[in-house]
Predict the 3D structure of the following.
Amino acid sequence: MERFLAGVERRAFQVARFAVRDSDDALDIVQDAMLRLVRGYARAPEAEWQPLFFRILRNRILDHQRRGSVRRRVLAWFSADGEDDEFDPIAAAPGPAVDAPDERVALADAMQALEAAVSRLPGRQQQAFLLRTLEGLDVAATALAMGCSEGSVKTHYSRAVHSLRAELGEHWP
């Protein structure tokens, strides 16, 4: 179980950070999801850990977003300025070694554009894209993690990819 959690920790943090846009909250969500997996499913077959973990993570993210929504509604009654939370972009993922400075800048711009585009996807499309692409889950495991049918996963993923291709065409032809 420790090896599994160590292997999934960074990717889970990125998924949570995309969803909640706050590093501290994302870290809390991932830690809570890990604890829930260990407490509830340590005896489950190892092959089931990954979809179970991402299902737990998804539920923790939804809980966080719901609490935030309620908190904002309550605070709206007491404050008139209604400040927006700042978006904290995810640090660019390490890519292939690039020596030329212009290539590094182009890669950094492309990663920043990808992060921004993924953050603008609807929630289910974002989740399907991140689980399939970043985590490498197959359609069945993604469906289990998302709590929906395999057909729904295929639809959400396809729409996400088409949206990203249309938006990021200049970066990834």
The mean pLDDT is 80. The longest helix spans residues 46-78.
